[in-house]
Write a structure and sequence with these properties.
The protein is α/β, with parallel strands linked by helices and 303 residues long. It has 3 domains: 3-84, Winged helix-like DNA-binding domain superfamily/Winged helix DNA-binding domain (Arc Repressor Mutant, subunit A, Orthogonal Bundle), CATH 1.10.10.10; 92-158 and 266-295, D-Maltodextrin-Binding Protein, domain 2 (3-Layer(aba) Sandwich), CATH 3.40.190; 163-262, 3-Layer(aba) Sandwich (D-Maltodextrin-Binding Protein, domain 2). The protein has 9 helices and 15 strands. The strands form 4 sheets. It has a 5-stranded mixed beta sheet. Strands 11-8-12-7-13 form a 5-stranded mixed beta sheet. Strand 9 (199-204) and strand 10 form a beta hairpin. Helix 1 crosses helix 2. The N and C termini lie far apart (62 Å).
């Protein structure tokens, strides 16, 4: 038995959810996949999976074996790259976590450009709208949009995150256009479940301003709220990295020019400077260079 291939098959079955999915991914027949799984179980001396007609589930031994298989395959990939890559060049796997909205609007494109420059690097991009424990979840880099970071972590500011209050022309024709932030109480405001659900924060004439808002729709994910706003459901406060192209296209209208929504910072967060790989250092420098103090999506966005 080729143990590395058997490990690849085992991981592919777990990730794909079935032997058929693994067979398609690895260009193997389903009987060959089954044989590799059986051989791996014989070699490990334990049953790794419960197999039924409806689903696959890991046994306790399978859970332990899966983690070790992933580590061994990652080491094997790193070894192959190190032989083919000049000494000191960025290489290896980076696990990066970021919010779904920022990944779709900006980061996926930037990661693609980075990988084109550094073909010996690979990125496992995890789209999570929650803060994760970098050490426990083996995360190399987290992109976080916040002014309140864990002081135990190391952060590098990449750029600014601005927001804009907006709605569709159709909604404004039906419900009127708010001229002052206090008038938001008269409108159906689309709110984020975890950030500013009942209070939107502004700055007016250099002073902070909190405005109570309410509406019939909230969500825990920003792109869902953006879709609702574009459908005319109400007034939304959106990050400009998402809303700017839609405002420029006329799909959404920027509101309340006399006030500025509270600005946040986009940070790259990581656990240690001492053990930073060349790949991570290169990615940090690349993102800082590409985003810059004034991000491109704000250059033509009304604020």
């Amino acid at each position: 038995m080729d143990k590395l291939v058997a490990m690849q098959v085992f991981v592919a079955v777990v990730d794909g959810g079935s032997q058929s999915a693994a067979a398609q991914l690895l260009a193997l027949s389903r009987p060959v996949v089954s044989r590799y799984l059986a051989d791996l179980e014989d070699w490990a001396g334990a049953r790794l999976m419960h197999r039924t007609t409806r689903r696959l589930s890991l046994t306790p031994a399978g859970e332990q074996t899966l983690a070790r298989c992933r580590d061994i395959l990652a080491l094997t990939q790193d070894l192959r790259r190190s032989v083919a890559t000049p000494e000191g060049a960025p290489q290896g796997l980076l696990r990066v976590t970021v919010s779904n909205s920022f990944a779709q609007a900006q980061l996926a494109r930037l990661i693609t450009l980075f990988l084109q420059r550094h073909p010996a690097v690979s990125v496992d991009l995890l789209l999570l709208d929650r803060a994760v424990n970098l050490v426990d979840e083996r995360i190399d880099l987290a992109i976080r949009i916040s002014n309140d970071l864990d002081p135990n972590l190391i952060a590098r500011r990449l750029t600014v995150c601005r927001s804009v209050v907006c709605a569709t022309p159709d909604y404004l024709r039906r419900q009127g256009t708010p001229q002052q932030p206090e008038e938001l109480s008269l409108h159906n405001c689309l709110t984020h479940s975890y950030f500013g659900k009942s209070l939107w924060q502004f700055e007016r004439d250099g002073q902070p301003l909190s405005v109570a808002v309410a509406g019939n729709l909230s969500a825990n994910e920003t792109t869902a709220l953006l879709q609702a706003a574009c459908a005319g459901a109400g007034v939304a406060m959106m990050p400009t990295y998402l809303a700017a192209p839609l405002i420029q296209a006329g799909t959404l209208v920027a509101l309340l020019p006399s006030v500025r929504p509270r600005e946040l910072s986009v940070h790259a967060v990581y656990a240690s400077r001492r053990h930073m790989s060349a790949a991570l250092r290169s990615l940090l420098d690349f993102l800082a260079e590409q985003l810059g103090p004034e991000p491109a999506w704000d250059t033509a966005a009304p604020r």
